[in-house]
Amino acid sequence: MPITINGQDVAVPTDPRTSLLDFLRDSLHLSGTKKGCNQGACGACTVLVEGERILSCLALAVQYDGRSITSVEGLAQSGELHPLQQAFIEHDGFQCGYCTPGQLCSAIGMANEAKRGLPSAVTADLTADTVSLTHDELRERMSGNLCRCGAHNGIIAAIAETCAADSAP
Q: What pLDDT score was predicted for residue 88?
């Protein structure tokens, strides 16, 4: 079975030791996903697997045979930026931009987790069906994605605006 990456079916790599990150960057030339620490500590390599965020440096590409992966290149649709991408621009959610692809994918996955009611370490009511994405809740949920430039305030503002728009009636 092929892996579907950004809507395109691609053959699984023949070397089972190939990380998903290296497969995306070296084999498929999708350079948006970044290699930061290559140890799962910085979040620069975050991609979405069927809507859930994963660290691609810690994943073997063969694990995702038959699954659907979205990298930062797959977020824009029909030439239109994803609303979160646009919000990053409007809120100066990046400086050097190295962490931005991972931040974007992680934020989208995080929003999906919150919609499903999954709590974080700072969620006050663990029995609640819904999670309010407060400033502290967003910062906690995005804590696995580092930004050395210090653009966290713009990142959180962009995510907060996009999540608020998504939950509006």
A: 97
| Residue 11: half-sphere exposure toward Cβ, Cα within 13 Å | 4
Give me the mean pLDDT over the 49-75 stretch: 98
**Which residue do the tokens 């663990």 mark?**
126
Residue 165 in this model has a pLDDT that exceeds 80 = no
Give the pair of three-digit tokens for residue 139.
């910062």
Q: Which domains does the chain have, with CATH numbers?
A: 3-74 (3.10.20.30), 83-167 (1.10.150.120)
